[in-house]
Amino acid sequence: MGKVANRIRRVMAALPAAALVAACFGDKPPPVPPRSHAPLAGAKKASYHGAMDKKNPLDDPRLASAVFFPRPDAPFGPEANGAYDRMHDVDGARIRLRVFPGPQGAPNILFFHGNGETARDYDHAADDYRALPATLVVAEYRGYGPSTGRPSIRTFLGDAARSLDEVKALLAADGRRGPLVVMGRSLGSAPAIDLAASRPADVKGLVVESGFARVVPLLELLGIPARRLGVTEADGPDNGRKMGEVALPTLLLHAQEDRIIPIHDADLLFSACKDPGKAFVRVPGAGHNDIQMRAGAAYFDAIRALLERVKTGG
C-alpha cells in the first residue's frame, strides 16, 4: 500500500479541497435540504473486517472529505409530531437514530439518508411514511447532525450494522413486531444493499432510491481521479456484486435524468438482483435531487406495494 499512499499524496497535493468540492457541486455551494445531496460513497462491507487492516485509499482524509459531506442539523420545517432521537454507541463515536413512529403492527423501515443530509431533514416526510403505514427510523453517519466522530470508509458499513442491531432492540422494546425493510438513498444505498445481502434473517425487504452500482466510475464522473489514486471497486462497497446476493422483495426508484448517478447504475443493480418479483420505477423528467417531488404519489405507492409483498411473504 506504500505505492498507493505515495500516489495519493502526489495527486491530492495537486487537487486542493476546494477543487474537490467544486468537482462535486460545480460552481455552486452544497444545495439546501430537503433533498440536498453531494453523492459519493464507498466502504468495505461489515463482513470484511479482516481485510480492513490494510489501508483503504478512500480513507485518505483529503479524499474522504470529497466522499462525505457531514453537516449539522438545519431544520427547514417544523418538527414532526411524535418524532424522537435515540443515540447509540459505535466504536469511538455516538450515532443518532431518528424515530418516526407509525401504527403498531405496521412494517418498519430503516432508512439510510443521502449525503449532505441529516436525519432531521426527514421530518417533512414523516406523515407520508406513517400513511403507508410504516414506522420510519432514519440512521445517521458519523459527523452528521448531532452524531459524533468523523465519517470514513473504514467505519461506514460497520456502523450501519450496529444501527440495525440497535433498531431491532428499539422496535422489540416498543412492541413493534412488523417486518423490517431497509431503504437507502444514494450514499445510503451502500449500507441498505449491504444489510439486505448479509442479514436476510433480520431484513425482509429492500428499497433503493438513486443507488449506485460502481464506485470508481461515480468518483470519476464527479471529477475525482480514482484510478490515478489506486482506487478499485474492492475499496468501495461493491454494490453491484452484493446486489447479486439479494433475493428479498426489492424495489428500485431512479430518476430518468439523474446526472449524478446515471440511471444505468440502477439498470445494473436491477439486473443483478435475484428477487423474481423485483420492481423498478423510473421517474421521467426527474433529477437526482427532485425524484420524490417529480414522482408524486407514485413514489409512495411503489413503496406501499413493496411493503404489501413483504407482509404477505412474497
Short description:
With 314 residues, the chain is of the alpha/beta class. 34% of the residues lie in helices and 15% in strands.
How big a fraction of the residues is strand?
5-15%
Rg estimate, integer Å? 18 Å
Roughly how much helix do the residues carry, as a percent range? 25-40%
CATH homologous superfamily, by name?
Answer: Alpha/Beta hydrolase fold, catalytic domain
Oligomeric state of the chains?
single chain
One letter per element, helices H and strands E, the order comes to: HHHEEEHEHEHEHHEHEHH
Structural class: alpha/beta
Provide the residue-averaged pLDDT: 85
Number of strands: 8
Backbone shape: globular
Poorly predicted sequence stretches spanning 5 or more consecutive residues = 1-53
